[in-house]
Amino acid sequence: MFKDARVGDRVWSMKRGWQEVVEIRPNAIYHIILKTFYGFVTITFDGKESVNDLLPTNFWNEIKIDPPPRPKRKVKRMTNGVWVNYYPSTKMWGSGHLTKEDAEGWGQPGAVQIYVPPQEYEVEERGFGGGQKNSKSMRRRSEV
Predict the structure, then answer these.
(1) Residue ranges of the domains in the chain?
(2) Which residues of the chain have pLDDT under 70?
(3) What angle do CA 81, 82, 85 make, to 5 degrees?
């Protein structure tokens, strides 16, 4: 990558930004000496700062990386326990109710009330709305 480097060339480091080649030592392990904003750094012709590095951190041009957005996390939630009406003759379910008395009151003749206990489920987390505090609907009348 940097075998053609010359003294005075500029090199971009992902760690330190722009640097300048000040010396080239073809027979050394770290062939190129770079002047940085705080001192000097040596790199290999591959652009690595250590022979143990898997990937280079130095390049001819600036590297810009746009990080991906954070993935949405899964959040555990619980349903409420509900009473539902079940109609055995038609094998149909009625609507859910918070109490057995409500289920009985809303049920048709022949309905059987069955309790469905709370269930745990996962959903993707939701954002916080991005600045709702400053929205017009959230301000006091005296501020509008």
Answers:
(1) 10-59, 74-118
(2) 127-144
(3) 155
Which parts of 1-144 are beta strand (E)?
10-13, 17-24, 32-35, 40-43, 58-59, 74-78, 82-87, 92-97, 112-116, 120-124
Q: Which amino acid is at 70?
A: R
For the whole model, what pTM was predicted?
0.49
- According to DSSP, the residues that pair with 142 across neighbouring strands are none
Look at residue 91 in the predicted model and tell me its pLDDT.
86
The residue behind tokens 């309790």 is: 115
Count Cβ neighbours within 10 Å for each residue of 54-78 and write b for 16 or more, e otherwise. Answer: eebbbeeeeeeeeeeeeeeeeeeee
Report the number of secondary-structure helices (H) and strands (E) in the chain.
Answer: 1, 10
Structural contact between residues 96 and 85, judged by C-beta atoms closer than 8 angstroms? no
